[in-house]
Design brief:
Blueprint lengths: L2 H5 L6 E3 L9 E3 L9 E4 L12 H6 L4 E4 L7 H6 L3 E4 L3 H12 L8 E6 L4 H14 L4 E4 L4 E3 L2 E3 L8 H13 L4 E5 L2 H5 L8 E6 L7 H4 L2 H13 L6 E5 L5 H4 L6 E6 L6 E9 L2 E8 L2 E7 L4 H16 L4 H10 L8 E5 L2 E6 L4 H15 L5 E5 L9 H12 L2 E4 L9 H9 L7 E3 L3 H11 L5 E5 L6 E4 L2 E4 L2 H13 L1
Parallel strand pairs: 2-3, 3-4, 4-5, 6-10, 6-11, 7-10, 11-12, 12-13, 13-14, 18-22, 19-20, 19-22, 20-21
Antiparallel strand pairs: 1-5, 7-8, 8-9, 14-15, 15-16, 17-18, 23-24
Helix pairs in contact: 4-6, 5-11, 5-12, 11-12, 13-14, 14-15, 16-17
């Protein structure tokens, strides 16, 4: 695409250079991944500022640079290197706007469903995708565990990628005949404008509890960020919200979209009732428009009845037949690292992504409901480094109170001292039922070998992740793989 044509579709403050002669084939925020046809966007992040790399990319011969701070960049630098300088108000917003225009507004050619909330985004996304698949609609997915174009998996590292990556994925989905896309939308993505200019047809609110306080500082800021998604829905769209969450009504209050509520309350549009679950799955009823549908899923726990109900609601908004939605829920495969059961003989290991105090509590309460005091419960967990520190002692207290024994270990310490993280976790523990084993593999092994033959062991915090990050270095590490390894050894 010619740069001047792209510039005609976006808002800028100033353009210096000859845009008519520039052919653009790439948008980038990484100075290492640019070429002659690139536009480089200087994004200011939490750790680095892209403006520090402007001279580097200009010297590499990029076609254009987008900046929102030009005080230290004289026009002569760009003119001398035949590079177009584009000044904007905010490069993060401009990246989203340029991306939308560069890929020809791809979200308008899909029915895009956004999902936000503290917990349940990934599982809900998998439910929604499988319902559309059951309805013979090819559906893409952008999320924490992986990105999918139909059944083709594309690896991911962020819950919500950067805006140019999102629009690229949308465009690829259209090329491969997708009609729908479900996308997990994090609070960071909303606050950092990664989904600006996306044409969301529907939005789902799962729940909200305290999380990401390292970034948002206050719960109010966190809530405001989440609320943005629902304000993006127009009068032709739908907002689906958890009627049982105290913030459900509030988060959709300013949305123009049509509302569908779900939950156990009698006034819920999609009412869930008679929830029963064990280690084989969850069974419940969905009440919708004066009819009752019996639903079941392989996924375990009350929270998965809620996730399924929100998915049913979005299916109704998209005119899917109720029975097809029920079938799609039933056939949704196990979501990696979401209350995933690994067994050997009568011993059960549950690998779960629960990395907040509320999600850890829900996971342990679900296990208590299943075992009914007939089995011992062991918990192996740690807390991530360079993240919200306030939850560490709270999670320690929850694990100790709801487990027979706790192994406090490392999660992803990142750049923090793992023993300092562990000390902060232990500070919240009041009972003498814990053991500190910093090495995560050794902690998992000890829990398996030291527990009773019929014990249930929760390994919490990392779920689907297949790495551990220590001092900025990622090494392969999978809770599920390690659990299977030592369960097999134990069972010999």
């Amino acid at each position: 695409m010619k740069l001047n044509k792209l510039l005609n579709k976006v808002s800028v403050i100033q353009v210096v250079g000859n845009a008519e002669l520039k052919e653009i084939d790439n948008l980038s925020i990484d100075s290492r991944n640019v070429n002659k046809g690139s536009i480089f966007f200087a994004i200011k992040g939490q750790k680095t500022d892209g403006h520090n790399f402007v001279i580097d990319v200009v010297n590499k011969g990029v076609s254009a640079v987008v900046i929102d701070n030009d005080q230290k960049f004289p026009d002569d630098i760009f003119k001398h290197n035949d590079c177009v300088k584009i000044l904007v108000k905010d490069t993060k917003i401009s990246l989203a706007e340029f991306s939308n225009a560069f890929y020809d507004e791809p979200s308008k050619k899909l029915k895009v469903i956004g999902i936000t909330g503290t917990k349940g985004k990934s599982t809900t996304a998998f439910f929604v995708k499988n319902i559309f698949k059951t309805n013979e609609n090819k559906c893409g997915l952008i999320g924490t565990i992986a990105n999918y174009i139909g059944d083709e998996e594309v690896k991911t590292s962020l819950t919500t990628p950067q805006s140019h990556e999102i629009n690229f994925l949308f465009a690829e989905m259209i090329k491969k005949n997708c009609t729908h896309c479900v996308i997990e939308v994090s609070s960071h993505a909303l606050d950092l404008h990664r989904v600006d200019f996306v044409n969301f047809q529907s939005a789902i609110f799962t729940n909200i509890t305290s999380d990401h306080m390292d970034y948002h500082q206050t719960f109010e800021n966190y809530f405001i960020a989440k609320k943005i998604l629902f304000e993006m829905i127009n009068e032709n769209g739908f907002v689906i919200f958890n009627n049982d969450d105290p913030n459900g009504e509030k988060i959709v209050a300013d949305s123009k979209g049509k509302r569908i509520s779900y939950g156990t309350k009698n006034n819920s549009d999609v009412r869930i009732h008679n929830i029963k679950y064990d280690l084989d799955g969850t069974r419940f009823e969905i009440h919708w428009q004066n009819k009752i549908y019996k639903a079941e899923t392989k996924l375990i726990g009350i929270f998965n009845a809620y996730n399924a109900a929100s998915s049913f609601a979005v299916a109704m908004a998209n005119k899917v037949e109720p029975q097809i939605a029920i079938e799609g829920i039933k056939n949704t495969p196990q979501v990696p690292g979401r209350f995933e059961v690994v067994s050997k003989k009568n011993k059960k290991v549950i690998v779960d992504y629960s990395h907040t105090s509320d999600s850890l509590k829900q996971a342990l309460e679900a296990i208590h409901h299943i075992v009914k005091d007939e089995r011992k419960i062991y918990t192996v967990f740690g807390c991530g480094g360079d993240r919200d520190k306030t939850k560490r002692p709270i999670m320690g207290a929850i694990a100790s109170e709801l487990s027979d024994r706790v192994y406090v270990t490392s999660d992803n310490p990142r750049t923090e001292d793992p023993f300092i993280i562990i000390d902060e976790i232990v500070h919240g523990i009041k009972k003498n039922n814990y053991r500190i084993i910093e090495n995560r593999e050794e902690a998992i092994r000890s829990a398996i070998f030291e527990s009773e033959d019929d014990a249930v062991i929760l390994i919490a915090g990392k779920g689907h992740e297949n790495y551990q990050e220590i001092n900025g270095v990622r090494k392969h590490f999978s809770d599920k793989e390690i659990s299977e390894k030592y369960l097999n050894e134990w069972a010999k």
